Amino acid sequence: MALGDIVRKFISENLDTELSDMxxxxxxxxxxxxxxxxxxxxxxxxxxxxxxxxxxxxKEQIGDLQxxxxxxxxRSESGRKAAxxxxxxxxxxxxxxxxxxxxxxVQEKLMDKFKEEITDLDSAAGIxxxxxxxxxxxxxxxxxxxxxxxxxxEQADVVKQEKNKMLGKEE
Length: 171
Hints:
Layout: H1 3-34, H2 40-94, H3 98-125, H4 128-167
């Protein structure tokens, strides 16, 4: 499995799954708050807000992944350049030595494979930053929705208590 595939798989299995699960839970909780459910809805919403901190940990892991991939990509590019220089030396040496000519062919194939890996890793590294931005936006939106629904629910509960008090229906 190529390194780029590993990066994509990590983001897909961790970020996409966790984020869609948390968004589904958030939407369900916001709907419960707005439907005028019991007072436990506010506590459930606050618990869900705390659960979002787990996604912050995932954000750190993806950031660490980016910090690992970036230098690896740089070192791989340096290795590719060194391999090109070695190939050039083998081409010159091959005019005098058939074994050097064979090494030149092998070196050429290795360089092609190296270029493919670098391209794949580079494309995978390109999805890390957008994934982090998506995670940030989603967390911000989910927190905002939950906080607003909590505020609305608490306000509705206060209005309901005042109305019942005015009607003489104390709970």
